[in-house]
Amino acid sequence: MALVTPGVLGSFVPHVANSLEAFTLGLSFSLTDDDVFTFLGSLSKLKDVHLWYYWQMKPPRHQPQLTFLHSFTATYADIDTKRGVDDFGKWIRRAITGSPNIQILRLLTKSSDTTPCNLSYDGVVDHLVKKHSATLKVLDMASCLVAVYKLKEFLSTCLALEELVIKVDRSALW
């Protein structure tokens, strides 16, 4: 295991800025969201990103403008409060807002699927409806609850959708 620091990320930029198409970063407490988003923003050909989310006190100053990004995956640990869900949703929106061609969004949990059923990820769905409905093909949020009325709005708006994995109330099928 190697320690990834802001200096290490910065040293990669001249070598990969115009060629790197996929990037995965695990948990690195030595990096802030600013460090990661600034690094990602300097990669002009990036198509696929997989990041580990962890809560930070300070929101990033920069949103990456990743015009070629097609796939964004976020892995996260247990989130068991409304504020935690809201903060995670804001982080996702910051990460993908500058990416007009998102086709795949995956939110993967490392928990034992004990996420409280009353914590709704409707904010993420709202963002997808408003910003990415024309391009989104895959939404995998298997451990994330979405309200039935948001699911209806999502399905009526995201017409390119091919795959959907979410958690809904059992009344959704009615």
In short:
By secondary structure, the protein is an alpha/beta fold. It has five helices and six strands. The chain has a six-stranded parallel β-sheet, with no helix packed on it.
Word description of this protein:
The longest helix has 15 residues, at 82-96. The protein is globular, with a radius of gyration of 16 Å. The model has no long low-confidence stretch (mean pLDDT 90). Helix 2 (33-41) links the parallel strand 1 and strand 2. The protein has a six-stranded parallel β-sheet, with no helix packed on it. It has one domain. The chain has five helices and six strands. It is an alpha/beta fold.
Fold topology:
Elements: H1 6-16, E1 22-25, H2 33-41, E2 48-52, E3 71-76, H3 82-96, E4 104-109, H4 122-131, E5 138-145, H5 148-157, E6 163-167
Parallel strand pairs: 1-2, 2-3, 3-4, 4-5, 5-6
Helix pairs in contact: 4-5
What labels describe this entry?
single chain; globular
Structural class: alpha/beta
Give the number of helices.
Answer: 5
Strand order, largest beta sheet: 1-2-3-4-5-6
Radius of gyration: 16 Å
General form: globular
Question: SSE order in H/E notation?
Answer: HEHEEHEHEHE
Which runs of at least 5 residues are low in confidence (pLDDT < 50)? none
Whole-number total of structural domains:
1
Helicity level? 25-40%
What is the average per-residue confidence, as pLDDT, rounded to a whole number? 90
Strand coverage percent: 15-25%
The number of strands is 6
How far apart lie the N and C ends?
Answer: 49 Å
Major beta-sheet overview: 6 strands, parallel
